Amino acid sequence: MSKSRNLAWAGALAVAAMVLGGVADAQAQSAPAATVGHDTAKHDTAKRFHIGRLATAQEIAGWDIDIRPDGEGAPPGHGSVKDGEEVYMAKCAACHGEFGESAGRWPQLAGGTGSLGSGDPVKTVGSYFGSASTVLDYVRRAMPFGDAQSLTNDELYAVVAYVFNLNDLVDDKFVLSKETLAKVKMPNAGGFYEDDRETAEKSFWTAAPCMRDCKAHVEITGRARIIDVTPDDKTVSKVE
Amino acid sequence: MGNTSVPQQPSRRRFLATASGLVAVGAVPAAARGESAQNLPPNIADWTKTLGEGVVSRPYGTPSAFEKHVVRRDVEWLTASRESSVSFTPLHDLDGIITPNGLCFERHHSGVAEIDPRDYRLMLHGLVERPLVFTLDDLKRFPRVNRVHFLECAANSGMEWRGAQLNGCQYTHGMVHCVEYTGVPLRYLLDEAGVKPAAKWVLAEGGDAAAMTRSIPLSKILDDCLVAYRMNGEMLRPENGYPARLVVPGWEGNMWVKWLRRLKVGDEPWETREETSKYTDLMADGKARRHTFVMDAKSVITSPSPQAPLKGKGFAVISGLAWSGRGKVRRVDVSLDGGRNWREAKIDGLVLDKACVRFYAEVDWSGEPMLLQSRAIDDTGYAQPTKAALRKVRGFNSIYHNNGIQTYSVRPDGEVENVEVS
C-alpha cells in the first residue's frame, strides 16, 4: 500500500470515528495522529467524503412521486368519478372486481365497514385506510399491477376518485385533485395508535420465567394436520 | 445449467444392488435407506476408483445434487400471484446462524427487479442542504462496515394466530434469515447531504415495480441503518435487493427496502400503504397499532420439526434458532413437556446484537411422546410469551408480530406435528 493511500485511509478512519463513535473511536485511537494530516476534523466539512454528485431538479422531479397526508407531493391535474370508472373498468376491475369486491384472492377495495372488531375483519380503503393520500400515493407508484407508473396524472386522480366513490366516501360528481384531497374524510382515520408494547405488554419482561412445575397438566388443543393446508415437501416450486 | 455439473444419478449398479437387497444393516433395509452395498465397506466405492470433475467445472459452486430438497418453498394458496408473494427459508435443513444466500426467504411486492449496476442510482433529497445522487461505485467508495443481522418479516408466523395451521417450521417460521451484510452506514450518506434541523423521518423507496416505500424515524437511520450491497461476502442476490438495499437492524423486514432507489428526508411520516393498510396490528377492539417496528424476541426448534422427524430412539440433539430485535439473546430455554418444566439450552457459536443465535438441547429419547417448546430471553429481560399470553393482549386478528412459543408434538415413531397446547 502506498504512503498516500495510507494517509487517505487514516483520514477516512478519523472521519469515521468522529461520525460513528464506539468501535470507530477505537480505530481512530490506533491511527497515529501524525498520519491524520489535515485538521479538517475540526470542521463540519470533515464529515464529508465528497462522494456522489448533486441531483438536478429535473432528476428529482422524475422520481419524487410520494404524496403525504397533507397533500404535499400531489401532482397537478384532476379527475372525476365518471372518468375514473372508465379507467377502473379497463385497468383494475379484472383483479379488484367491478365494485371493488375483489376477484379471487386480490385485495378487496370496498366494503368491510364495521368489520374491524369482528372475527372476520375486512380491510379496505373505506373500512381501514387512515389517509386518503395513501391510496393516491400507492396507485401512483405501484398500480396498475404489472404496468406501474403508466397512468397520467388525470387518470390517477380519476381512478382514485372512483375507488373513493365505490366506498361511498365521495359522491358521483366529485372531482379529485390536490386541492380537493382534504375533502375526502376517511372513516377509520382515528383507528390507529402508536406502538404501546412496552407498556401494554410489560408483563412479557419477566427476566426470570418459571422453570419448574409451571402448570398442572398439558393437553393438545389444536393440530396442524387436521387443518391439512401444508404443501407437500416433495413439491419443489415449478417457477424457477 | 451445465450438464457436467450434476453428479451421476443412481447408477445401474446402484439399482441392481438395492433391488436385490444384498445387504441389510440395522432395522431399516438397505434398499429402503437408498444405500448401495457396492459403495459400502468392504467394497471400494465408485468415487474412490475414478477421477472426479476437475477444478472450475462448477465456476460458481452449487450444493451437492443430493441436497436438492434443500430449497425455498412457497404456499400457493396464500397469495394471488407469485410476483406479490413470499417464499420460506428451509430452516429445518440448516444449522449454525448464517443463512446461505440462495436460501434466504423472499418477499416481493411486484417481482424481482433486475438492475444493471451501471444504471443503478440512489437519490438522496428532501430536507437536506445538498440533494445527491450516488452510483453503486460511489457507495462502494465510502468506509464500510460488516454486520450480522437477522431479517424477519413482520408476518412471519402470521398464519398461526388462530391456531396451528402449517405443518413445518419452514412455513410457520421461515420468513427469517440471518446473513452478514457489508455496506455504508446511512449516516455517512446523510452527512454528505447535510440534514436540515427540521428532519425527523426518512422515506425509503425501492426501484421495483411496486416502488415499495416505508417511513423510518431519522433517529434509527442515524443509529445503525446501512445501505448494504453485499451479503455473506458476495454482492446481494437479485431476490434480496441487488445491487443495494436498506438494513434496518432488529426492525420488521418490510422496512429493509430492496433495490433502494431513493431516500427522502422529511419532518413527518408519509403513511404509505405499507405502514397503514399493511404492517399495522389490528387488535380485538378494531383499533390498530401502528409503527410497530421492533421484532420481539422469538425462537423456534428447527430440528426435530415436522419436516425433520427424529430418526430413532437414543441420544438426540434438539436444535433451534433464536433472535431478538431489541438486542442480544441472553438465554434460550427448552421444554420437553409442553411448558410444564424447562431447562436452559446451550447457545453455541456467536451471540451478536440483533442476530440469530443457535441453541442446542441434548436428550436421551426413550421413545415416549414429547411436547417440545423453546423460549428466548433477550438482554432487555423480555421473555418470549406463550401464544395464549399474546392472544390475551392482541386478539386473533393482528396478523403481524406473532412471536409466541411454538409447540411440537413428537410421536413414538419420531414423527413431529405442529400443535397447540393448553
Give a short summary of the structure.
The complex is a heterodimer of chains A (240) and B (422). Chain A has helices at residues 3-20, 23-30, 33-36, 57-63, 81-91, 93-96, 132-142, 153-166, 197-200, 224-227; strands at residues 53-54, 78-80, 175-177, 192-194, 220-223.
Alpha-beta classification of chain B: alpha+beta
CATH topology of the largest domain in chain B: Sulfite Oxidase, Chain A, domain 2
CATH homolog superfamily of the largest domain in chain A: Cytochrome c-like domain
Number of DSSP strand runs of chain B: 23
Tell me about the largest β-sheet of chain A. 2 strands, antiparallel
| CATH H-level superfamily title of the largest domain in chain B | Oxidoreductase, molybdopterin-binding domain
Broad shape of chain A: extended
As a whole number of angstroms, the C-alpha radius of gyration of chain B is: 24 Å
- Fill in the CATH topology of the largest domain in chain A: Cytochrome Bc1 Complex, Chain D, domain 2
Helix content of chain A: 25-40%
Mean pLDDT of chain B: 93
Question: Could you explain how this protein is built, in words?
Answer:
The complex is a heterodimer of chains A (240) and B (422). Chain A has ten helices and five strands; from the N terminus they run αααβαβααααββαβα. By secondary structure, chain A is mostly helical. Chain A has two domains: 3-47, no CATH class; 61-183, Cytochrome Bc1 Complex, Chain D, domain 2 (Orthogonal Bundle), CATH 1.10.760.10. In chain A, helix 1 runs antiparallel to helix 2, helix 5 (81-91) crosses helix 8 and helix 7 (132-142) packs across helix 8 (153-166). The model of chain A is unreliable at 1-46 and 235-240 (pLDDT under 50). Chain B has three domains: 12-67, no CATH class; 101-289, Oxidoreductase, molybdopterin-binding domain (Sulfite Oxidase, Chain A, domain 2, Alpha-Beta Complex); 298-419, Immunoglobulin-like. Chain B has nine helices and 23 strands. Chain B has helices at 12-19, 30-33, 46-49, 136-141, 169-173, 186-193, 218-224, 273-276, 387-394; strands at 85-87, 106-108, 122-126, 132-134, 145-152, 176-185, 201-206, 213-217, 226-231, 234-235, 245-247, 260-266, 281-282, 288-290, 298-303, 314-323, 329-335, 343-344, 346-348, 357-365, 370-378, 407-410, 416-421. In chain B, a hairpin with a 5-residue loop joins strand 13 and strand 14 (288-290). Classes of the chains: A mainly alpha (240), B alpha+beta (422). Strand 5 (220-223) of chain A pairs antiparallel with strand 23 of chain B.
